[in-house]
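Ticket #4471: structure output looks truncated?

Reporter: J.K.
Steps to reproduce: submitted the chain below (376 residues) through the standard prediction queue, then opened the result file.
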Amino acid sequence: MEELELDPHPLLARLREHEPVSWLPALGGWLVTRRDLALQAMRDSETFTVDDPRFSTGRVVGPSMLSRDGAEHGRHRDPFARPFRLDAVRERFTTLVESETERLIDAIEPDGGAELRRSLAGPLSAAVAAKALGLERTDPGEILAWYDAIVAAVTGVAAGDRVTPAGREAFAALGASVEPALAGEPRASLVAAAGQSGDLRPDEVVSNVAVLLFGGIETTEGMICNAILHLLSHPEERALVEADRGLLANAVEESLRLEPAAAVIDRYARRDVRLDGASIERGELVTISIAGANRDPDVFPDPDRFDVARDNARLQIAFAHGPHVCIGMHLARLEAHTALGRLLDRLPLLRLDPAGHAAPRGLVFRKPPTLRVIWG
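Returned output as attached by the reporter:
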């Protein structure tokens, strides 16, 4: 388990080459590490489902779009989906993301150094998620504290622990904050729009808001931190981006490929099935390694290399695939592109702090716990 948390990539490479569908006692289930098999499992919700009482996120926040399939999945997801389409995201969120990024960089610029996870990536993700959901009156620090507790609870459940009291309390506090937003203006708040759609009960809106905060903060924060880390750790690749800003978007895709913020996703077998020769029994856990699939050498030559000009970097599947593809992927990309671009523009000689230690870690969600940088 420790190997999967600290640096899973050598183990994933061995499994992908010799046994791409492997039984791992540490996980209590099967691990899928090859890209074609990962796509097959994610696309086939009739065989590999999230709709299981053991699903970790569902145990913490209740039924949501993340833990339902078929018509029920559509009922939970559809009231939130339209505002996250690419054109709607650009129209609705570009100005907000740009202004919030500038505000956060303004706050740290005079200092000559900062820890970017909690001075930029986390606050940006939290502010944008709160605005999108109609929770902008809630203190971003409170939202970050709730999400920390919920993420810790989900991660613990995935590792076999019980839901923590802190996780339950954070979810309850989130629910209390969401309740007033249900009566807001639907055109200005996803919470109000979903609550007044007639498709979801108030408690179901709260569960889906928790999931959207979970993705909108946790994985977006990780995506931004990992992209900064990769670019600052590879001076030659950074120089290419500095010389041609058109490469910035592809650099973010390559960072997502190399270190997806959500390293694994869980499914459960609805029936006995064979997957690449492995005999999976009904009810067994099937964990899909996004991290393993994204370094499949049959798709990505020299897969451990960070290459901002990689011509197929967008084939990464960090946002998952199939019915449960990430609803917020366009917004997450907008935030990462903006944050990374403005950091490079505004902080000359931006570099990793040699006194710090930054490396991604985490079994389920992977990012550096701290990301200390200096400039000037």
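Triage note (M.O.): checked the attachment and the full token line is present. The radius of gyration is 20 Å.
Status: closed, working as intended.
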